[in-house]
Structure formats: structure tokens, C-alpha cells
Amino acid sequence: MSVAVSSHSSQLRFENVGVVLGERRVLDDVSFQVSRGEVVGLLGPNGAGKSTVVRAANRGVELAEGKIVLEEDILASLSQRDLARRVASVAQEVQVPFSFTVGEMVLMGRAPYQGLLGFDSSSDVTGALHALSKMGIADLADRRMNELSGGERQLVLIARALNQSPDWLLLDEPTAFLDLQHRVDVLKVVREFTREGGGALVVSHDLALAARVCDRLLVLAEGRVVASGPPAEVLTSTVLERAFGLAVRVVEGPDGLPLVVPQL
Prior knowledge:
Helices cover 31% and strands 27% of the residues. It is of the alpha/beta class. The longest helix has 16 residues, at 180-195.
């Protein structure tokens, strides 16, 4: 695990954030931070507000209260272009333009750096190929998006996010459509990203993998933070029963990290 840098100038911070959608309060007084060099896992039941956290950090929803600070800048003060150069996100639900090839899709990650005409430079192409290789899908470069499985499309979208060369990755259920091997591969890429100085927020329902990849875990329930800290402190039967409404048993795995077993 990497050691997180604690300086506010190297953090993405939520400060007392509230979000209201329609008549429903989706986030309520949410405060936490993600530092460069660390992976923070965001856990919680369906409808807890996890995806809204990601959307808020990408300016996809309006804040009712509080603020989000990116290093020393208020997120709301940044242009969309500047934000896209610093933050890359992969949403849970993405409308994929099927007519594009995989290579073209990944090249779209360079859009924040291109001029008005949007021509791809040789370095853009090199970066796209590198991102595809990192995700293990270089052989898909000429395939059409509508020819891919859901898992393959997910890998393409993560490659596009990496090709933005961001400082921060926001990934909403990045392993949802993937088999176990590809889940591990994706999370290894995320850890490599943080070792190189980036920060990552990963929404996940896979508690076992989150415990083994994330430096810290944050648990949401009904739009509020109910627990935050190292995996061993957060993945307890008390916290999980409160958040998920399900009786669980937490045992120590062979690697010393927690495993969660539902009591059926």
C-alpha cells in the first residue's frame, strides 16, 4: 500500500456536501478527502448515494450545500476543460457511441488537450496505444464498440480515462462486468496510477477486493457517511449491518485482512 500525502494542496476534498435531486436528499453533509498516492473505496447499498458522489466530483450534479475542493481550487470555479485535464471518471452507466472503434474511443480521452479542430497528434495516438496495452486490450483497437462484451467495453472506458492523463481517477463500479482475473488486473492498474502520484476514488460492491486494494474505505448509507478509515476498522459486523441491513460475520482472511460472510 502507498503512503498518502496529507497536505490539503494534494487532495480532492468534499466539505459538508449536500445534493438534492427532485424532492429527495441524495447526499447529506458528506465530508471526506482523497489524497494523491492513495486509493479510497466507496461502499454502501444500492441507493446510498455512491454514484452521486462521483457525479458531484465531475460536476455532473449541482450541490445544494457545501463545496468540493480540488487541491487549492474550488471545483465549481474550474472550466470544464481544466477539470477534464485533472479529473477522469468512468460512470456506472455510459452511453457508448457504437459506431466508433475502440481506438477512436480511447483517443477521445485527449479531447481536453486538443485545439478547436480536434486533430490527433502522434503523441495522442501513442498515448492511446499505451492505455490500451495497459488494460490488456491492444488487440481490440480496430473493433467497433458494438462488437464488444460489456466487460470489454468497461475496459475501453477505463483506458480512455487513463489516456486523459489525469491527476485523479473516479471509477464507479469499474469491475462490475468483469471476471475475477480482469477485476484484479483493473485494480492493479489503479494502484499503479496512485504509486505514480495520482489519487483514486473507487465505488465497489466487492468488499473483499476493496479491503485488499484500498488504503481507506468510506461507507455511505442513506446519503450519509457512516464509517471511514482503514479496511480492518471499517469492515466490521456493526458497520455493515447498519449500512446494508444484513447480518454478517467478519473473519480474518489468510492475508490478515477482513472477509465478509453474510449470515443467510
